[in-house]
Specification:
Pfam families: CbiQ
Strand order of the largest sheet: 1-2
GO molecular function, one term: transmembrane transporter activity
Membrane topology: Multi-pass membrane protein
Radius of gyration: 22 Å
Largest sheet: 2 strands, antiparallel
Keywords: Cell membrane, Membrane, Transmembrane, Transmembrane helix, Transport
Number of helices: 11
Strand content: under 5%
Shape: flat
GO cellular component, one term: plasma membrane
Number of domains: 2
């Protein structure tokens, strides 16, 4: 399951989505998340799902690779689904003691579950199609106006990028630690959920030690390269808007209008 987490990973490619300006992709991701919360029925989700399917197809990232990222949060999706089924009042279709399933509960559970799935897939596409260094530059450029009030935008962007970049690294370290402990007789599979959670506690100490070691190595590497923050720093590749970026921005605006109109009139 550790290997199934795709958040923070980059899938190399030369598609139109990969070549879009990272600022457009960040803005598009934020708009898509906002649209998921604007939508109030399954018709709106159909529009969002169709748009997301088109983007996945254009990006040429294998759908199986994207869907694999849902496995680690499957428990959260199931928990959200069950919570809405049993906790929403309405027309009762089944009841046993204090537990009851209502028509409104089923509708809300399906609605919230679908929203969560689309949210995860849409957010994953940002990191899957954008290199970490490009993501850092884009976040810094978008936050640049805050420099006027003393906000260290370069440092904030760098921290966010490093956090995303090292998610796969820490997951790989976790996998190595689990395999090493399994070779010594540790059991992470048997027992109920509580016992499985307890069995993961011994993993945390070596994982934290490994994380601090990686952070120290990164700090030493940055210092050896004379890194002194963003002041006066230049870039090898300056970001510039191309025709495809303008077209993507117009498409994002049109789709936002469509979602708003769908909520108002349908």
């Amino acid at each position: 399951m550790i290997r199934d987490i795709t958040l923070g990973q980059y899938y190399a490619g030369e598609s139109v989505i990969h070549r879009l300006d990272p600022r457009i992709k960040i803005i598009g991701t934020i708009l898509f998340i906002a649209e998921l919360f604007i939508v109030h029925d399954f018709i709106g989700f159909a529009f969002c799902g169709a748009a997301l399917a088109i983007i996945v197809g254009v990006s040429k990232v294998p759908p199986a690779f994207i869907l694999r990222g849902l496995k680690p949060i499957l428990l959260i999706i199931i928990f959200t689904f069950c919570l809405n089924i049993f906790m929403v009042d309405g027309r009762v279709i089944w009841q046993w003691g204090f537990l009851k399933i209502t028509v409104e509960g089923l509708y809300t559970a399906a609605f919230m579950g679908l929203r969560l799935v689309l949210l995860i897939i849409g957010s994953s596409l940002l990191t899957l199609t954008t290199k970490p260094i490009s993501l850092t530059d884009a976040i810094e450029r978008l936050l640049r106006p805050l420099n006027r009030i003393g906000v260290p935008t370069h440092e904030i962007a760098m921290m966010m990028s490093i956090a995303l970049r090292f998610i796969p690294t820490l997951l790989e370290e976790t996998d190595k630690i689990m395999k090493a402990q399994q070779a010594r007789g540790a059991d992470f599979e048997s027992g109920n959920i509580l016992s499985r959670a307890k069995s993961l506690i011994p993993i945390l100490v070596p994982l934290f030690v490994s994380a601090f070691r990686i952070a120290q190595d990164l700090a030493m590497a940055m210092e050896a390269r004379c890194y002194r923050g963003g002041k006066g720093r230049t870039r090898m590749h300056e970001m510039k808007f191309a025709g495809r970026d303008v077209a993507a921005m117009i498409t994002l605006g049109v789709f936002l209008v469509v979602i708003i109109l769908e909520r108002i009139y349908l």
